[in-house]
Amino acid sequence: MRLFQHDTQLLRRAATALLATTIFVTPGQALAQDAAPADPADSSARADDRPVEGEIIITAQKRAENLQDVPIAITAITTKTLEDQQVDDFRDYARLVPSLSFKSGGGGGSADGPGTNNVYFRGVASGENANHSASLPSVGTYLDEQPITTIQGALDVHIFDIARVEALAGPQGTLYGASSQAGTVRIITNKPDTSGTYGDVNLELNNVAHGGWGYTGEAFVNMPLSDRAAVRVVGWYRHDAGYIDNIPGQHVMTEYTYDSDLGPVPTGNTQTLDNAAFAEEDYNDADTYGARAALKIDLDENWTVTPSIVGQSQKTHGSFAEERGLGPLETMQFNPEMTKDRWYQAALTVEGKLGNFDMTYAGSHMQRSVDASLDYSDYAYFYNELYGAYWYDNSYTPITPNQLIDIRDRYKKQSHELRFTSPFENRLRAVAGLFYQRQEHNIQQDYQIPGLADFLVVDNTNDVWLTKQLRVDRDYAVFGELSYDITPQLTATAGGRWYKFDNSLVGWFGFNNFTDDGLGYSSNPDYLCAAPPVVDGSPCTNLDKRTKDDGFVHRLNLTYKANDDLLVYATWSKGFRPGGVNRRGSFPPYKPDYLTNYEVGAKYSFGRGAHLNVAGYMEDWQDMQVSVLGLNGLTVVQNVGNARIWGAEADLLLRPVPGLTWSTGVAYNNGKLRQDFCFDQDAADCQDTGFYGGLDLLAPKGARLPLTARWKGSSSLRYEWGLTEATRAHVQSSVTYEGTRRRDLRPGINEIYGNLKSYAEVDVSGGIERGPWSVDLFAKNLFDVRGQLSKGIQCREEVCGDQLGTTSIGGKIYTVVTRPRTIGLRLGYKF
């Protein structure tokens, strides 16, 4: 096993062999494996739009359609595949979507566990740090009809009793709007069903290599209340064992005093920061529990009302990243680390008919609270050692440089969509609607130095820096698509979306620099009071800005259905992302950015669900929103120019003999800048000075876009057979591969981090089903590969990265890695 931990060459060869059957990836990847008609005795197969003979029914175009008849690049992962692959959360199903990539929080002063993923499609990623005052996500995530994308990313919903996950690659700007510039992920739940009472219970016990024991309990029950009403209730509790060790260690720091002429002067003494109180093995455990309930009422033959509510609480400890320079799965943190992420969403869907038109209203209200304590001692340590940035108490005695972050962020979101759809059988058909969304983020992040002098404190005890702001993002839209069958085989579609955004940011950020007595810590004018407090909990207001704009995006498509088995299409579409406010007052608001997609594709069906789907595309990304850490570590968003992405994707699903299913998908993406990226984008000249400010060349024309591998793919082989008349068995093996990715767009910064290395993972499982009972034994990441998901740092890369070795321990880079080998046993019972 140790061979595979340190050398993945054999795994790469295995991945290449399995993925060699296709050379592009996933326009319609149906990882479904459900060739036979749904079994009426199988409760999980009811009321989830599952068709017969392997067809997959999706609702990506706001109406129920066969996956193979939809001219969009879609990966549809059905209930059966979600169960077969032991999918529990976002990272599990993200592996199955080759056109999708993501970045975790990254470790080192930022949350990096479950629920902190930033999602990207087709390489549309600039390496942004997803700061609370930065760009909105470029990928929208929906739970049924309602968006669940918050300002800093989507909710990580526990996957159980889910009908399917639909991943729509490419701009979805007309039907899904601002949050779907590069793609959309839709999680479709199983709906209440009046056909009978049934349910499902699953229990799982697992062990993580180098870690501890985890377990899961999940259940749902469907109950008819009458012949026109039913309720469905789902609940889950999951404990994920830790595998990162916080090892004992010390920061030995230089002690300084201050001289009015010389500045910071070393005293010849040192101070020691010790983490003995927080050292712990396997300290990154997580507990997730939640519930979902939906009530479906058929008012008559035409009208249905479905109110629902879902809530989840997730508490994690520690960091999910290993630290460069230490052993595998080790870190050295000097403050307690914890994140508690709680949210709920109440939703209402009304479906009915007005004349011949189907009408749908979908509304939701969501609230989310995130409380976290994070280590930030690297910041204090490196600035102390490199620049003599020392701290002292009320008696002017130097204190040990230490820093931690206390986060109390609150989110609210409401969305409303009213949509009308004409009869699908008409030669001319339309979808049209109205959309409104308002989301706010009440930001409170206290950067604390224990024992800090009172006159250096911003507003709360020990706060050397405080961010207390209210961000509000508002979106309005009118959208529609019109399709016309030119001939029985040839269809033209034209769609558009008029949008308006209105975004604001108000409150306080900075050091103590708002008093009249001149004792403030910083002389930076950005931290001066401009007005009395507007946001509760802020000392005053030094930022109050708003930006708004409107525009139009389109989608044009031509689809040719040669016969029942073959469809070809060409699409020209455009997506957008709203502009926003830069928190640094000296920088103007950033503008919207746009993604224009030119795509051709084909879908060919072999029967009983087997198919080959391919697509190729070119995407132009204009006025890219790129966020970087500027002076004082403040995030700044710039519209830096243009990039172009060439790519192709395909999937192959075969059923060569009864019981055997082979599913393979691969994606290729090659994205590069089309012009130099300068920090001052309006400068007449752009030089490589190596510093922020002036005319920096941060990335040259031709630089490769980060975070997305040129090649990503997955392949799965499953065989099912009958042991006896009442007992069935199955075995399954799958491999996923992700190639080398740049961590950062800027070559100099990427050199500090280093590339994210390629890796391949192998999963195996086997089990039996007898009557209502099932048992599965599985191993995820069988060869215990340490795949790199993202890298992070606590402050500016040139400081905390410290590649020059000016401090005793060098740079501190944190790498979020794949979960070690996990072996588990799952027991299920259907009733």
Features:
globular; 22-stranded antiparallel barrel; mainly beta; Maltoporin, Chain A; 831 residues; 51% strand; disordered N terminus; 6% helix
- Taken as a percent bin, the fraction of beta residues is over 45%
Give the uncertain stretches in residue-range form: 1-8, 10-53, 106-110, 690-695
For the biggest sheet, the summary is: 22 strands, antiparallel, barrel
Corresponding CATH superfamily = TonB-dependent receptor, beta-barrel domain
Topology, element by element:
Layout: H1 2-6, H2 9-19, E1 57-58, E2 65-66, E3 74-78, H3 79-84, H4 90-94, E4 100-103, E5 118-121, E6 139-143, E7 146-147, E8 149-150, E9 153-154, E10 162-169, E11 183-189, E12 198-208, E13 213-226, E14 229-240, E15 245-246, E16 250-259, E17 263-274, E18 286-298, E19 304-317, E20 321-323, E21 330-331, E22 338-354, E23 357-375, H5 377-387, E24 391-392, E25 398-399, E26 404-421, E27 428-448, E28 463-485, E29 490-510, E30 543-561, E31 566-577, E32 593-607, E33 610-622, E34 625-629, E35 635-639, E36 643-654, E37 660-673, E38 677-678, E39 697-699, E40 711-722, E41 727-738, H6 747-753, E42 759-770, E43 773-780, E44 788-792, H7 797-801, E45 814-817, E46 822-830
Parallel strand pairs: 6-11, 15-21
Antiparallel strand pairs: 1-2, 3-10, 4-5, 6-7, 8-9, 10-11, 12-13, 12-46, 13-14, 14-18, 16-17, 18-19, 19-22, 20-45, 22-23, 23-26, 24-25, 26-27, 27-28, 28-29, 29-30, 30-31, 31-32, 32-33, 33-36, 34-35, 36-37, 37-40, 38-39, 40-41, 41-42, 42-43, 43-46, 44-45
